[in-house]
Amino acid sequence: MTQITDQLDNIRRRIARAAEAAGRAADDITLLAVSKQQPADAIEAAWRAGQRHFAENYLQEALQKMRALSHLDIQWHFIGRIQANKTRPIAEHFQWVHTIDRERIAVRLNEHRPDAAARLKVFVQINQGHEPQKGGAAEADAEALARLIAAQPRLELRGLMSIPPSGGERETRRYFERLRALRDDLIARGVGAESLSMGMSADFELAIACGSDFVRVGSAIFGPRPPR
Ligand SMILES: *Cc1c(COP(=O)(O)O)cnc(C)c1O
What we know:
This protein has 228 residues and is α/β, with parallel strands linked by helices. 42% of the residues lie in helices and 18% in strands. The chain contains 9 helices and 8 strands. Helix 4 (87-93) packs across helix 5 (103-112). The longest helix has 20 residues, at 2-21. The two termini are 21 Å apart.
């Protein structure tokens, strides 16, 4: 577990350097520790090293870990694909959702968000490469979906998220810049999708250079994931 502490330190230093190089404050960038397929022990080790934001992809697995770690103050982010019949437990147990890609999911998350809880903070996921195996709305549908979310009383629209197609640095930069341009365009049109959720272990520094506010880092913190 000391390895997790060391790797977290290393990622934090790299985030600070990337922010500084981009003329940004390191505090403005939120590190999400992507803990899918990692045991509760590993999350607790990262928590003891000061990490508070954790991201999970698979609902049942996440709920088990939440129960095991209910003594810790953790901000849980859902970053997996959302089936319509899973919106209630997601709305009840997570504080953040990065992967809304259609209206039906937004409406159901709003319906199922408990009144006693703060509004659910959400991102619209964009499928920039039109890849069938990935979730995400088409860029052309982003504005309508963002406006619908902004009109839901139990949701708080936070921004746009993407997992661009894997590729070289130049191609990845192009996708990151395009997501940022889409965000800027929405803001200019009066849609308050302020933040960008982009960048993973292999490319979070590039994402920060391109304006990312939330980087989602898994294997660079926890090591390789065991097979599911
Ligand atoms: C798994 C996953 C990550 C983290 O990937 P790493 O390469 O391990 O950093 C980030 N975002 C999403 C949506 C993921 O599914």
